[in-house]
Amino acid sequence: MSRHPEVKWAQRVDKVFITVLLPDSKNAKVNLEPEGVFTFSANAGGGDHLYELKLDLYDKVNVEASKINIGVRSIFCVLEKAETAWWKKLLCGDGKPPHYIKVDWDKWVDEDEDKGAGDFDLGGMDLSNFGNMGGMGDDPGEFDDSDDEDQEVAKPAASDADKAEHDPNKGGVENTEEKKEAASST
Predict the structure, then answer these.
(1) Staple partner for 142: which of 20, 48, 52, 137, CB 3.0–4.6 Å?
(2) Could you give phi then psi for residue 58, rounded to 5 degrees?
(3) Alpha carbons 18 and 129: distance in angstroms, whole number
(4) Any residues with CB less than 8 A from the CB of 85 and at least 6 apart, and which?
(5) Which residues in the chain belong to E strands, given as ranges?
(6) What are the residues whose beta carbons fall under 8 Å from the beta carbon of 136, sequence distance 6 or more?
(7) In terms of DSSP H, where are the helices of the chain?
(8) pLDDT per residue over 111-152, tens digit each?
């Protein structure tokens, strides 16, 4: 029996972004039909499990203008819509979307904030290196520059009276005499 990978999606007026999150996938196959049928299959995981996906999209897409990039951690697809219009949802039909399909809030833009075509242009960009993002750089001095480097922060030192007061080895008369000395010196 096949499994379903996690899918994230977002849209613009002229395109739909679909990201299939499946790290270390093997034999990944993506198919897009002009009628708006998106299919995906790959093997992944320790047991080399089969992951399959078929999405009946809300409307038709332009297959020739769409771009698909199979990376190490995910499969990123930019699907060009056949007609420039906002979709009400990703999938056709009246039901609730499957649990493995989620909105990609990192790429989401509201309809009234969309600047139109070209605000998320990927032309010529190699998306295969996106899997390496998010880690620390190789340069050890990369984070040395700080805005507060001229400010020194010192830990408050405890007074001798406070130390004696909290020292379990001291007590009785010695502790009282040290308190008197500390009080007279202030």
Answers:
(1) 137
(2) -60, -35
(3) 17
(4) 13, 59
(5) 6-11, 15-21, 26-33, 37-44, 49-56, 61-70, 74-81, 101-103
(6) 142
(7) 160-166, 172-185
(8) 888 776 544 545 454 544 434 333 444 444 444 444 545 555
Question: What single letter denotes the amino acid at residue 185?
Answer: S
State if pTM tops 0.85: no
Domains of the chain, each with CATH number or no CATH = 6-91 (2.60.40.790)
Instruction: Please report, as a single letter, which amino acid is at residue 101.
Output: I
State both tokens at 107: 């790429």
DSSP 9-32: EEE-SSEEEEEEE-TT-EEEEEEE
**Strands, sheet with 61-70, edge to edge from the N-terminal-most edge strand:** 61-70, 74-81, 15-21, 6-11, 101-103
